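Morning, I've got a small favour to ask if you have a moment. I owe you a coffee for this, so here goes:
>
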Amino acid sequence: MERPIARARRLRPVALAGLLAILAACSNSESSTPAQTRAVTPVDLATAGSIRVVVSYTGTPPTPKLINMSGTPACAAAHPAAVSDQSLMVSGGRLANAVVYIKSGLGDRAFATASDPVVIDQKGCLYDPHVVALMVGQPLRFRNSDQEAHNVHGHPKTVDAWNFLMSRPGSTRDVSFDKPEVGIAVACDVHPWMRAYVSVFDNPYFAVTPSDGTITLKAVPPGDYVVAAWHEALGTLVRPVRLAPSATADVEFTFQGANDAG
């Protein structure tokens, strides 16, 4: 059930009337952390292996668009140099900010939930980091390091939506999830260029690619899996993987740029 947010008497009523209308409710995602209802399935580390993944991009990537913050001087002042959009970051043919994960093959295994929060900071009127991943029940912590007020508006398809205001510098607010979902968009309705993506999994076998496009999923039980790579602008690719006991399986995903199609 949705509940109204607290009144913001100290905010300028004319300037923020439209925003407060948008922020009329917060979902119960903040308190939806599930209890550990199943016994954790132990992983035999003596036979577990690794899945090493490389995510590449073919073709010439488009020139990143510059973000125009001139309408909000405080945001523009935080960036002496030009700021580029982060929706497609390619370096040396490798793709950053792709979410790699085991899509299927783990059966009915249950895993302990990580307790440390994953943090997305609002700094310089940008979300940092741009892409994060975490487990079901693990806290996702939003922090506002700006003097500017932001709102954090999640746009999921499966989990409960959320939308709340963060007006105080240094404030934090946690959200948690009771089911998986890949690629949840998060936006700030005050600053429309602010966007992040959150993926939630019911197992610990996931990672976000750094600039070299390479990650390793460790301590994976031997078996047959489907591994996926998701990217906000390029969609999802999947690959079957057979992991032998105590082995390392290599997987490569190659996303094709629009100018390389055909």
In short: Helices lie at 17-22, 73-77. Residues 1-29 have pLDDT under 50 and may be disordered.
